Amino acid sequence: MSTPARRRRARLKAAKTPSRWKRRLLDVAILAATGVVCAFIFSMSTRLGYSHQEERQPPIIVRAQVLNACGRAGLASRTASYLGDLTVGRVRFDVIDIGNFNRTDVHRSFIINHSLPDQQVRDIAKALGLGPVDVVESQTGLSDLGLDLTVVLGSSTVEPWLDASAETADQGTTPPKED
Fold first, then answer.
1. Has residue 167 got a pLDDT over 50?
2. Does 94 fall in a domain?
3. Can you tell me the distance from the alpha carbon of 150 to that of 83, in angstroms, rounded to the nearest whole number?
4. Cα radius of gyration rounded to whole Å, the chain
5. Which terminal residue of the chain has fewer beta carbons within 10 Å of its beta carbon, N or C?
C-alpha cells in the first residue's frame, strides 16, 4: 500500500512534469521565436547592405520658358503644366515664363537651348513627346530670364497629356480645335 508521503511525492512529481501537449506547445513557441529572430537578422543585414550602394542625388532643376507659336489657345499653359510635372532622369522643370512667340504660323515645334548639354536637351525633347521637335542653339548662350531652355510650340504639336481613351471613344473623329 502506498503511504500518504508517497502519494504526496507522486502528486508533486506529476505537477512538476509538464504534460505532452504543453511540451509540444513550448517547442513550437521556441521554433517560432527562432524564426522571427532569423528573419529580423536577415532583414537588417540586407538593409545595411543597400544603404551604402544608393546615395540620393538632388534633382537638377532646369528653368524653362514655353511659348505658343501656332495660335491654339491655352496650348502653352497646358504644355507648361505638363512640363512642370515631368521628370527626365534627375531633371525636373521650373517653368519661369509662359507666353506667345513673335509669330503664330510656325508649323514644327523647336527648343532653343540656352545652356544645357546637347544630349540632355535631346533627351528632354524626346521625353516631352510633342511630336517632331528641332533643337536650336541660342546665339548668345544666355537669356534675359536666366533660362536653360525655351520650348516653342508649332502647329504640329501633339499633346501627350490628352487621354488616349477619350480619343478612341470618338472612333476616329477629330476633336474640335480651340480658338
1. no
2. yes
3. 12
4. 35
5. N
Domain residue limits at 38: 18-47
Whether residue 31 has pLDDT greater than 90: yes
Nearest to 124 by CA among 158, 96, 148: 148
- Other beta carbons within 10 Å of 142: 11
Instruction: Read off the pLDDT of residues 52-80 as tens digits, 9 standing for 90 and up.
Output: 455 678 888 889 999 998 888 888 888 88
Closest CA to 154 of 88, 103, 114, 92: 103
Do residues 135 and 113 make contact, with C-beta atoms less than 8 angstroms apart? yes
Task: Name, in order, each residue with C-beta under 8 angstroms of 154's C-beta and a sequence gap of 6 or more.
Answer: 69, 70, 106, 107, 108, 109, 110
Residues 108 and 133 in one domain: yes
38 and 113 co-located in one domain: no
